Amino acid sequence: MKAKLKPCPYCGGKAELYKTEWELGKRGVPNHPYWIICTKCGVNTQPTGTKRAVIKCWNRRTKE
Ligand SMILES: [Zn+2]
């Protein structure tokens, strides 16, 4: 499934969804493996627990 990401709100660059593997299994810490980063200027979201939530977070930011 291809995630639908809006362009970066700051520079219009391409946004990419990333998922960490190394974050998984950290003891006592909720897993927040997903985040989105602009490939051009590097602006990013906070790490988020689900793909849906992080995409929502990013797309909402573009409206501000
Ligand atoms: Zn950008």
Search tags:
single chain; 64 residues; alpha+beta; two-stranded antiparallel ribbon; 1 helix; 17% helix; binds zinc ion
What does this structure look like?
With 64 residues, the chain is α+β, with helices and mostly antiparallel strands. It has one domain. It contains 1 helix and 2 strands; from the N terminus they run E-E-H. It has one helix at residues 51-61; strands at 15-19, 34-38. The chain has a two-stranded antiparallel sheet with strand order 1-2. The termini are far apart. The model has no long low-confidence stretch (mean pLDDT 83). The structure holds zinc ion. Zinc ion (ZN) is lined by residues 8, 10-11, 13, 38, 40-41, 43.
